[in-house]
Give the backbone structure.
Amino acid sequence: MRMKKKKNGKERLNLLSNLIVSDIENFYKNKDEIYNENKPLRIEIGCGKGDFVCGKSTQEPEFNYLAIEKIADVCTLAVENYAVSRGLGALAPNGGWKTADGKIYPLGESVRFGKEQIGNVRFAIGDAKEMLCYFPENSVDAIYVNFCDPWSKKGHTKRRLTYIEFLKLYSKLLKPDGKFYFKTDNRPLFDFSLEEIEKSPLELEYHTFDLHNSEMDKTNIRTEYERNFSEKGFSINMLIAKNNK
Ligand SMILES: C[S@@+](CC[C@H](N)C(=O)[O-])C[C@H]1O[C@@H](n2cnc3c(N)ncnc32)[C@H](O)[C@@H]1O
């Protein structure tokens, strides 16, 4: 995701620091303090502006969610969108955060929300490559990757988030019955992903080349990229693979 550097990006992130995991390497150890309730953990990699995790966490609230995004300014937008979607206020017109009860927190401060107010989602700036440093093996209920960069050049295959080494990593982190969910508009990337799954410890459970005209669309949460590509006439591919280690 390309984005101009955000003005006051760090301060904006700091305003909502309650929703952000700053020490991701110690996240798992501290997760009982981080979330309000102890629930199975789901992870979204490359959450972009956060549409998916906002929708999914409301649709299936019996899980805790961690949305990981490697670009700090993009993560800021995701956190702000989530806070708005949960009725926690909005950006104040002159900077800062205005809570639902009208109190304004200026840039430089952090809003102290109660844990019960902020629901079952937290955000972290992090890189999928480092996930083994963030989570123990067999600890995750589901991993979601939506509309990742296709890295189309031949020499860039290993960067794709469905390259075999990433799939092996997901398998390690997932519980034995955990699942990997993947969506993309990019058919060559999707075909590549199906082939990589075949070689991996994951087992393909479901796939469609036209999600929006499938049964699965009833519960599908559309992401920003998904809406954009779909409006341009691309059909959306989706797969679900279960752990089989
Ligand atoms: C094309 S955007 C899609 C955003 C969103 N998932 C959607 O569907 O609208 C991909 C996002 O993944 C993030 N990303 C790419 N590689 C990543 C990685 N290795 N770890 C974490 N985030 C990553 C990018 O910064 C970008 O925000």
